[in-house]
Design brief:
- The protein has 493 residues and is α/β, with parallel strands linked by helices.
- The protein folds into two domains: 53 residues; 305 residues, Rossmann fold.
- 31% of the residues lie in helices and 16% in strands.
- The protein is built from 13 helices and 17 strands.
- It has a seven-stranded parallel beta sheet, sandwiched between helices. A three-stranded antiparallel beta sheet has the order 3-9-10, with no helix packed on it.
- Helix 8 packs parallel to helix 10 and helix 8 crosses helix 12.
- The chain binds nicotinamide-adenine-dinucleotide and sulfoquinovose-uridine-C1,5'-diphosphate (USQ).
- Sulfoquinovose-uridine-C1,5'-diphosphate binds next to helix 8, strand 13 and strand 14.
Length: 493
Amino acid sequence: MQPFLSCFQVDGSSESVDFIGVVVKSRTRYHTQNKMRVLFMVSSMVTIATAFTNPLGWTGAAKTSTTTTLHASADSGDKKKVVVLGGDGFCGWPTSLHLSDQGHEVIIVDNLSRRNIDNELGCDSLTPIQSPEVRVQAWKEVSGKDIKFVNLDVAKDYDLLVQLLKEEKPDSVVHFAEQRAAPYSMKTSKAKRYTVDNNVGGANNLCCAVIDSELDIHIVHLGTMGVYGYGTSGGEIPEGYIDVILPGGRESTILHPAYPGSVYHATKCLDALLWQFYQKNDQLRITDLHQGIVWGTNTPQTAKDERLVNRFDYDGDYGTVLNRFLMQGAMGVPLTVYGTGGQTRAFIHITDTARCIEIAVNNPPAKGDRVEIFNQIAETRRVRDVAKMVAEMTGVEANFIPNPRQEAAENELDVSNKKFCNLGLDPISLDTGLFDEVTEVVKKYKSRCNPRKILPASFWNKKRAEECASIDPDSIKLEANDAPAPAVEVTHQ
Ligand code: NAD
Ligand code: USQ
């Protein structure tokens, strides 16, 4: 059998995928969840709450605990201790609050690199996010629940990571702590190298740390739909694995071929191989969530107090398409549709992100099971159709600008999300009613917007940069009277 990563070839610029000697036999082999696993748990916990900041740097009440967990798996209803790596970020913060709200014990780990990248880019969240210390204090006041915060670099502070796991003995580690913007990952050689070092190094460190801790910790990783790529795949994309007939008629089940569209997406493909290896070699229990584009701002928990507000990225590097369109519509700026807008992508609301993580935490694979893979999406939509929805709602025009990305101009996307639905998720769909929540947030904080940051600022290659030379960041101006800003040059591809 050929190595997994060489199971495809790229047909020049057409972005089609051609499997070499691999015939897709059936699109989905549903890996049945054993939802009724018997649970045996003997837990002894010694908790010493102290008011100091410990050597790992967390704030709030520090705890030393010893927990002996004798069960291999658990179903819903079981309260867990969860370390959330990247818990200060857009997905990590609301997920941490949701888990805490549901009665799980949460420890956030974050090195605040995302806030530092904002400084580097001269940008900021549209919403005024508070420091981690203020955030956890506000949550304590609102909910009565403690969340610890640990400032640690998952990709660099290996010994501290092992120490944290040994001391806290979590049931699960949810891993959000990666550089997640495709445009930023394509910005410069420095950004490409940082993205690979940070993301792949962090994933490898986490596996090594779980092994060194000698604890049976379930890893839940945030992957991406982009691992499958956006060449039209000719059918429904299954959840992680496909059944194939190899040359010679041999039947096999393999990881879906990887087809990344950016350095960032490539790191998620590399992560996926690491999960496969460490599961096989060390029987680590791992769930990889192939998530679509997250939209929305607040969740029921972050909406409880202004100090809990979630971050909102609107800039050309970190802002994602639907939230950008909603922000542009609310500000009267023409919507920045790249190319023809024929790109079809998967979407999920931020509230469902948090719900999915809890479902994954509550349903770990058994020891020895293959890596569990879920497609974490609600639905798929074409970018120009999303633009049309927002344009109709706001009265702002869609502006088709040259595409800064090397990607298929048009693609179909049909994705299975049966596993989460079978485990109880009733996903929120794109709904103009919910768009209001985002536009209200945008209007509230519009004075914080820097219009120079709205247009794309990272280009996939020299050709794309040349094609985008007409894009002038100064062409977007937010008038005091809210008049729509002048459109940038329109180019249809
Ligand atoms: P984010 O950048 O807002 O949050 C990531 C957090 O991780 C940040 O707070 C950052 O400071 C932290 N971090 C990064 N590297 C770290 C390191 N080495 N050590 C400690 N902390 C580190 O991103 P997000 O939108 O919340 O995404 C979270 C995860 O979900 C990412 O892995 C991303 O790939 C995945 N994801 C996001 C989306 C989306 O639309 N936002 C969609 C699919 C998947
Ligand atoms: N796009 C526009 N106009 C914009 C911004 C984007 O037309 O103003 C287009 C892009 O060209 C692309 C599509 O919209 O075709 C999606 O772009 P995006 O920035 O919303 O999403 P992407 O770069 O794929 O990355 C985001 C997250 C990433 C996550 C991924 C999930 O930043 O962390 O992994 O969504 S997925 O796309 O399903 O792989």
